[in-house]
What we know:
binds zinc ion; alpha+beta; single chain; five-stranded antiparallel sheet; about 25% strand
Amino acid sequence: xxxxxxxxxLYAIGDGTRLAYSPEEDAAHELAAEWMLEAGLEVGSDEAxxxxxxxxxxxxxxxxxxxxxxxxxxFDGALxxxxxxxxxxxxxxxxxxxxxxxxEESGPMGSxxxxxxxxxxxxxxxxxxxxxxxxxxxxxxxxxxxxxARGRVTFEGRAGHAGTTPMDxxxxxxxxxxxxxxxxxxxxxxxxxxxxxxxEVEPGATNVVPARATASVDxxxxxxxxxEGLIEAIGFEPVWRQDPIEMTGPPLDxxxxxxxxxxxxxxxxxxxxxxxxxxxxPTAMLFVRSLNGGISHSPDELSADEDIELAVDxxxxxxxxxxxxxxx
Length: 328
Ligand SMILES: [Zn+2]
C-alpha cells in the first residue's frame, strides 16, 4: 500500500529525526507537497509554514504533523498526513484540504498559529499507548483529549555533613521530595495520570545532606473535575493548565457512523486536533492501535499494515460523509 511506502520515505529523511523547522522537516513538507499535487490538490502554505493541499472550497480538513521528537517513530504525525493524502486521492470529487502542521512536538507551533479555520477537522494518529492493543481492537474513536497541568514544588531542608549529622537531626529535603513523589503516584486514579519527571537536588553532592529539592509535576485527567481534584490532592500550584477538550459535532458523528463498534477512548497526549478544537472547530480523532506495548517517541513505535489500511478506509468514508454534512 502506498501509505506504507510513504511512511518509509518520510522516516528515511533524517533517520527518524525531523525537528521543528529543521531542513529535515522542510524536506518532509516538500515530499508531502509532491504527493498532494499527485492527488490533485492545490498546494500552498501559510505564515507559520503549515502545508495545505486543497480541493475546491475546502471546509473540511484532515491531517497531522511531519516533525518528530529526536529519534522518533515512523507513525507519530506522519501517519495522519499520509492517510489524509491517500483519502484525498480516493475522493477526487470531494472538496477538502489535507494539512501538514508545523512543529507539533515543540509547541504545537503550527496549529497554534492558524490564520483561517475549517468547519470540521479529522485527525488520524497512532494511539501511542496500550489501550487498543489491550482491547484487541485496531481502531478507536477519541472522545476527548485529557486536560493537563504542570508545576514545580520545592522542598527546603538544611545542608549538613553526610558523615557527622545524626539521622535524627537532619532536615533532608530530598527525603521529603521522595515522599511527595509517592503521593503524586498514589493520587492518580480512574484514568488520570501523574508524573514527577524531573528532580533538582541542591547542593547535589554525594557527601552533603540535601538542602533543597525541586520536583516537576505533570498531571493529566479526562475531566476538568478530576484534573482539579488531582491538583488539590497533590497540592501544587499549576504554572500551566489546559482543561480537557471534547471531540464534538459532525466529525465525531462521522467516525461513529463509519465505525459503529469501535471502542471510544480519551487521549492522554496532546495533538494538533486539540488546538483546532480549542479554537472552536468541531474536531474528532481516529486512533490506530500501537503495537510493542504502545511504545512511542521511539524507533520501536509500530502499527500493523492491516490496521493502517483499515484506518485509511475509515478516514476516507468519514471524510466523504463529513464533506456532505458541512454542505447541508
Ligand atoms: Zn503526534
